[in-house]
């Protein structure tokens, strides 16, 4: 990512949003799907994890079975991970169990809009299925299965069901944003399409056009345990 300064600036912004929403107090902070990211540079003593062993990641952890005691965690954080979790209901139950009172799940995830569906259909290899009848996604091995619409399904379309199933977990913030910048960056798999110095120009253009919510490709989502 260091070779893509525009993309690096996107992750800088994402990590800043996550850090700003971490609750104070005691308890460990777990990152799911740490992968090639660098959130540990922002959060001291962050416990990083992945589904498979990596030399720079602390633990191998499956989001569906968290190896922590009840109410042990202060926060669970992730970027572009939730929509890959098979049986996401199990993760939600584990988050409820492991988070202390006032603990939070803070994530940056894809978001369903007309524009984001177009982007995924034309430029992305992940499925975006907002009309999926349930929350299941194919489990084809580590990170290969996905439904990019899953965060929107769980926290928007089926929000009443989510609230009924996990009444202790309160959705405190959904902020759709970033309609163009990630696409302009080329993402992780494509070559960089913009130099780093263009990042504030693109950010200003998104805000000036006033389409961040209507054409959002991503959303910041915060869930807090009572």
Please name the fourth-level CATH homologous superfamily.
Vaccinia Virus protein VP39
Query: What's the alpha carbon Rg, rounded to whole Å?
Result: 17 Å
Spatial order of the strands forming the largest sheet: 3-2-1-4-5-7-6
The helical percent reads: 25-40%
CATH topology (fold) name? Rossmann fold
Write the element-wise H/E pattern from the N-terminal end onward.
Answer: HEEEEHEHHHEHHE
Mean residue pLDDT: 93
- Number of domain modules: 1
Shape summary: globular
- The tally of strands reads 7
Q: How far apart, in Å, are the first and last alpha carbons?
A: 37 Å
Overall SS class: alpha/beta
Poorly predicted runs of 5 or more residues: none
Identify the CATH class.
Answer: Alpha Beta
Q: Give the strand content.
A: 15-25%
Please tally the helical runs, counting DSSP H or I stretches of 4 or more residues: 7
User: How many strands, what sense, and barrel or not for the largest sheet?
Assistant: 7 strands, mixed
CATH architecture: 3-Layer(aba) Sandwich
């Amino acid at each position: 990512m260091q070779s893509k300064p525009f993309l690096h600036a996107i992750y800088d912004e994402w990590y800043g949003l996550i850090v700003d929403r971490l609750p104070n107090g005691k308890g460990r902070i777990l990152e799911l799907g740490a992968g090639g990211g660098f959130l540990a540079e922002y959060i001291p003593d962050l416990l990083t994890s992945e589904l498979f062993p990596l030399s720079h990641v602390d633990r191998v952890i499956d989001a569906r079975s968290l190896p922590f005691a009840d109410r042990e965690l202060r926060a669970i954080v992730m970027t572009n991970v939730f929509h890959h979790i098979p049986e996401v209901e199990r993760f939600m139950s584990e988050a409820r169990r492991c988070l202390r009172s006032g603990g939070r799940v803070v994530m940056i995830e894809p978001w369903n809009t007309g524009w984001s569906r177009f982007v995924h259909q034309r430029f992305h290899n992940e499925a975006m299925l907002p009309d999926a009848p349930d929350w299941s996604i194919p489990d084809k091995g580590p990170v290969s299965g996905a439904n990019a619409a899953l965060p929107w399904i769980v926290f928007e379309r089926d929000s009443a069901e989510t609230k009924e199933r996990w009444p202790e977990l309160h959705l405190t913030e959904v902020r759709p944003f970033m309609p163009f910048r990630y696409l302009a960056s080329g993402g992780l798999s494509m070559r960089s399409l913009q130099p780093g110095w263009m990042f504030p120009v693109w950010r200003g253009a998104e805000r000036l056009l006033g389409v961040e919510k209507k054409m959002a490709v991503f959303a910041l989502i915060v869930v807090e345990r009572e």
